Amino acid sequence: MNIIAWIILGLIAGAIAKAIYPGRQGGGIVATMILGLIGSVIGGVVATLLETGRLQLTAASFSIPGLIVAILGAVVAIFLWGLVTGRTSY
Question: What pTM was computed for the model?
Answer without folding.
Answer: 0.80
